[in-house]
Every structure is written in C-alpha cells, then in structure tokens.
Amino acid sequence: MNNDKSAQPLHEFVNAIAELMRGAKALPASAMALDAAIRRTTHSPPTPRENAPVCVIVAPHPDDECIGGGLPLRLLRESGWRVVALAVTHGSNPARQLARADEFIAACASIGFEPMLLAERGLGRVTGHTRETDPSHWAVGVHLLAEKLAALKPALVLCPHALDAQNTHIGTHHLTLDALAVVSANLPNFATTLAFTEYWSTMTRANLLVELTAAHVGDMVSALACHVGEVSRNPFHLTLPGWLIDNVRRGGEIVGMSGGNVPNYTFAAIYNVMRWRDGALHTAGSSGQMVGRDASCGDAFNV
After folding, report:
1. What does the pLDDT look like over 195-217, one tens digit per residue?
2. Residue 20 and residue 254: Cα distance in Å, rounded?
3. Burial 261-298, CB ≥16 within 10 A → b, else e
C-alpha cells in the first residue's frame, strides 16, 4: 500500500485547501481593507440602467447583504438592475453599531449595491418574541420598512426564510412580510417577487439555483471583508466560498430532481422564490429553475 501523500491527489486537494485557509486567516485587517480598496479603484461598479427594476435586500445585519447577494449581484451586472441593500439592525452590541453602519456602507461601495439604513443605529429587538409580546415596538419597525418598500416599489425583495435558526433572521422574515402587508393595504395593486435566503439553517424547499463565477464570489468575499470588526473575531468571509460550493451539491438535488444529475457549477446560491400579490404570498411555479452563468438572471424574473 502506498502511503505517500504526494501520490494521493485527493489528499493533495484537501491539503491545498487547508494551506489556503491558513494563509488567508493570517491576513491582517489592513490587508483585507486594501483588497476592497483596490477593487473599488480598479473596477467601477456598473451603473443601473435608467428606470431599472429595483431589487431590495432586507439584511438582518450588516454583512447579510454580501452573504445572500449572489443573485442581486448578477442582476446588477447582467441586467442593469438597481440593487438596494437595507440594513435592518446593526447588531446587538451598542458599541459597534455605528462602526457596523460604516462597514456596511463600505461593503456596498465595494460590491456596487446602494446602501440604506432604517435607523442610525439600526432597529432593536427584531425577533419573533418581540412581535408577539411588544406590538407597539414592532409596529415602529414595520412602519419604517414599509415606507422604504412603498417608495422603492421593488420588483424583487430578498429576506431570510422563516426558519433561518437565528432570532434576528427569523424576526426580519416576519418584519418583511408585515411591512409588505402594510404596503399592499395602502397600494392595492402592489405586487412583487420574494426570494427567501438561508444562512443559519437550510430551507426545506427551494426552487432557484443561481450559478456564481469565481469572479462573483471573489467580489462577495472582498465586500464581506469590509465588515472588518466582524470578520476579525470570526473569519466567516473565508468560509463563504465553501458554503457556495456545497450549495451546488444540495441545490442540484432540491431544486432539481433528487437522484438526478447535479449541474456542473463550482459555486451557486440557493433561493426559494414566491410571489406577493393581493396582500399575501403565492407560489411562483411548480418546478425549480437553475440559472447558469451563460443564462440571464433578469430573464428569470420576466422584468
């Protein structure tokens, strides 16, 4: 039996990943900031086309705009959509809330999204428990978000799915649906498309798998690294590529057919797309859709 690891390509593959992770973890915050700064100065973000459809990312925290931003990034670059990233909270640490707003703005500048804040320090206590026990506090956040959505009239809204296993993510899901209900009450003909995202817990149902290129993912990681205070304590920007790789395995089965062929993607983002009309959610179709790099994400939404 040959125990020479150099003759074992799969061991070499794993060792290469481990070596890359060690090197990336050793990068100082200044290097991460420089990466994003170079990106901003050498690659001007595309400008949305005139009267472009609007995509709103309802981000539970600053950094979620990057993590779930694969589909919006492609819509911006391929179809000239206007992408607005809206930070609901700025985290639970008051000492970091203003800095997190600054990091959010820097991240959006890096990736080309338009930043928008609901409040200077973000909303507080955006959880399902607050929704049930403090309706007056909850109503303030619903009103603020509804105002933004009514003004933007988005063709697409992204927010976490209902069981995303983190209190603020779950709260943001309900806040978004409550705000859309308010918009519909005031604008009876209002309709939009919702794309539910996942991070802390996977969705049991999904119907859209979006291929991402290495360039897309590199830009997402670079923008995510602008959240310096967060990635310094937990370098989750470095695990984003691995998560997007695993999405191909899982998405190929749950968006496609279980036991069928998985698409030949390296990276992908998973979403569950539904329609909002008449003040309620509706299914967007019975079959899943996979959008490869050579297809148009904009065509998938018929806008």
Report:
1. 999 999 999 899 999 999 999 99
2. 30
3. eebebebbbbbbbbebeeeeeeebeeebbbbeeeeebb
Contact of 272 with 208, CB cutoff 8 Å: yes
**DSSP helix/strand/coil, 1:** coil
For residue range 60-78, what is the model confidence (pLDDT) as tens digits? Answer: 999 999 999 999 999 999 9
pLDDT computed for residue 49 by the predictor: 83
Q: Are 301 and 289 in contact (CB under 8 A)?
A: no
Smallest CA-to-CA distance from 114 within 141, 96, 79, 87 is with: 87
- Among candidate residues 81, 70, 75, 71, the one with its CA nearest the CA of residue 47: 81
How far apart, in whole angstroms, are the C-alpha atoms of residue 13 and residue 216?
Answer: 23
- What are 289's strand-pairing partners? 208
Six token digits for residue 235: 């370098």
Place of tokens 């899901």: 173
The DSSP element (H or E) to which 152 belongs, if any, is: helix 135-152
DSSP string, 199-260: SSS--S---EEEEE-HHHHHHHHHHHTT-HHHHHHS-TTTTHHHHHHHHHHHHHHHTS-TTS
Tens digit of each residue's pLDDT (9 = 90 or more) over 244-291 = 999 999 999 999 877 778 899 999 999 999 999 999 999 987 679 999
CA distance 270 to 5: 35
Quick check: pTM over 0.90? yes
